[in-house]
Amino acid sequence: MPLLVTDYCWTQTESTVHISVPLKGAKVGKVDILSTDEYLKVHFPPYLFEAFLFEPVDDVRSTAKVGNGVAVISLPKRTNKVWDHLMITTNDKEKKKEVRERALLKYQEKLSLESTSKAEKEHTEKKYALETMMKHEQEERDRIQKIKDTEREKTTAELAAWRLRQKEELKVQSPRDSPNQMTAKQEPGCSDGGKVKLDQRGNREAKSKIKQVDLPAPRLVGNIQVSFTPRVFPTALRESRVPEEEEWLKKQAEARRAVYADVEELEDLKEEERNPDWLKDKGDKCFAAGDYLGAVNAYNLAIRLNRKIPALYSNRAACHLRLRNLHKAIEDSSQALDLLTPPVAANAAARIRAQVRRGSAFCQLQLYAEGLQDYQAALKMDPSNKALQADVQRIRDMIQGWILQVRLHYLGERSDLTCYNQGFDLHT
């Protein structure tokens, strides 16, 4: 049950009533004020102040100010006169309950009306913005259509002028009197029909000569000899892996051409952003700058464009290692190793990186045996790598420590090998 506030104070003029309610240390955000024309409530748990007003007030123009530990409410009177009391003097609980319920109902209606008017205002503003945007778009379309019409008329006029010039040039180039026509006129005894036939034949021959003159000369035919420099492998012939090298090069060439153009994001991408190599460089830059999430996003889109490039999976595995997404790092490293086949000298460095990244993820998951296998495979490809040698030795020590700890546990002895439970950094 709330505690009623009795130490309030109030003053009045003929037109306004001012009520000051102490907040007793309550915060401003926890003060709830409800005001109608005949009821006032100020609630700040656990305190409550309510007033059943002596006369009706104008709740539309009522104001409240909360601050400095006090709430000051100003209530404009509907009739300009001095009140005898602030509240009604009756002690009828039923009447007060009725006034309270009526005030709450009015307040809810007021809130509903304000919400409806706010929604209508937002709808009107959105409608106006949409109409304005549609108007601007229509004006832009009309402007573009006007430009098109102007260009079409201009092109049509230029085409008509060009055709007219062509006709005039043909008229100038065609001979007025052909030799056949002169011969027909000089021959005696020829009828008029013969002259017409000779004239028509002469015109056809003249036109055919003009067309033959206008035709360009035929192009010359020739062959271009293309030779390629043979690829020389440095491996000795007895240890040669030329077929595997050729298969690897073929797979690399096919991977560069295997671009999946049905990706939905291509519609919104620029031309350079549709290039997996460009996206890989962008991911590398993000990784170098410490933006691992940005690098993952770049590699994701590059993989959607081309799923045959192993470097994309290997680099994304490195990002997942930094983000502690260890299972994803294992998946990407395994996918990169599947693509890095057949194992040849050209992809040895890439296979070492993928093996080390997968081994590091296994070790961070405390799967040291699996991690040791990957590190040993990497060390087998690069036996002189000091960092790999140190990591392999550390993993072996870690496995031996776990074995010793388990033995001590089963023997019932106390183990102080807490260092083996802690994480460690490997060269990734």
Automatic annotation (TrEMBL):
The keyword Ribonucleoprotein does not apply. GO terms for molecular function: nuclear estrogen receptor binding. Residues 169-208 are annotated as: Disordered. It comes from the Eukaryota. Residues 194-208 have a biased composition (Basic and acidic residues). It is found in: Cell projection, Neuron projection; Dynein axonemal particle; Nucleus. TPR repeats lie at residues 352-385. The keyword Cytoplasm applies. Its main location: other. One of its GO terms (biological process) is determination of left/right symmetry. Residues 175-184 have a biased composition (Polar residues). This is Dynein axonemal assembly factor 4. It comes from Dicentrarchus labrax.
